[in-house]
Design a protein that fits this description.
By secondary structure, the protein is α/β, with parallel strands linked by helices. It contains eight helices and six strands; from the N terminus they run βαβββαβαβααααα. It binds manganese (II) ion. The site of manganese (II) ion has 3 residues, from strand 2.
């Protein structure tokens, strides 16, 4: 598959891609939704990229409540799931598809812990600094709800959001190890399911005085 290519499938992964992705030690993941409030805004896409760069965009249909192969993959203990700002994606995957994603690596948390010289931890900034690639985010706030008629530009955007995540993760991991913050990062990643559950219950500032 050429570096810019990806495949699109409906509702769940086909058997062959499920088998391929299940062999990977880590996978890059992202979601596209109708908005930032899981109870209000439905999940439209789940994007996956493996270490060889095989990208799949799974279209989630309106009213869909499960995706068995996706669930088995995202809950597989041997496959590390890498997100940028995992807290949101795992909350929406839990709410809409009942998937309890684990184990986790969040490149945004890793960037904040390692790149203390920068105030900029958006995916675009991190991919630009660590990979030298300029992500086109112009389709970020677009209508993801019309899943059968997404434009080539939207699909390319969705695919590119996962394409550079694993190289970024590897570099951030090395930086965290170098700076003595790897163990701290792992403890942060381990609390993400708790934070996502609290977000879904709409608790705010639970740990404040
Ligand atoms: Mn995205």
């Amino acid at each position: 598959m050429a570096p810019s290519e990806f495949q699109v499938c409906d509702q769940d992964l086909p058997e062959d891609l499920f088998g391929l992705y299940s062999q990977a030690p880590q996978l890059a993941l992202d979601t596209e939704t109708m908005g930032l409030i899981p109870h209000r805004d439905r999940l439209c896409l789940v994007q996956i990229c493996d270490p060889q760069g095989v990208v799949t965009v799974v279209r989630i249909h309106q009213g869909q409540t499960q995706a068995p192969r996706l669930q088995q993959l995202l809950e597989a203990p041997a496959v590390l799931k890498v997100f940028h700002y995992a807290r949101f994606d795992i909350a929406t995957l839990s709410h809409h598809l009942g998937i309890r994603v684990r184990p986790l690596f969040c490149t945004k948390i890793a960037s904040k812990l390692a790149r203390t010289y920068s105030p900029r931890h958006g995916l675009k900034e991190v991919v630009w600094e660590l990979e030298g690639i300029e992500l086109d985010k112009s389709a970020q706030s677009s209508d993801w709800g019309n899943s059968t008629k997404l434009s080539p530009q939207q699909l390319r955007y969705a695919a590119n959001d996962v394409r550079y995540l694993l190289p970024v993760q590897a570099k951030l991991r090395q930086m965290l190890i170098r700076e003595g913050r790897w163990e701290l990062a792992e403890r942060c990643f381990a609390t993400l399911p708790l934070l996502a559950d609290l977000d879904l219950l709409q608790y705010q500032n639970l740990f404040e005085h």
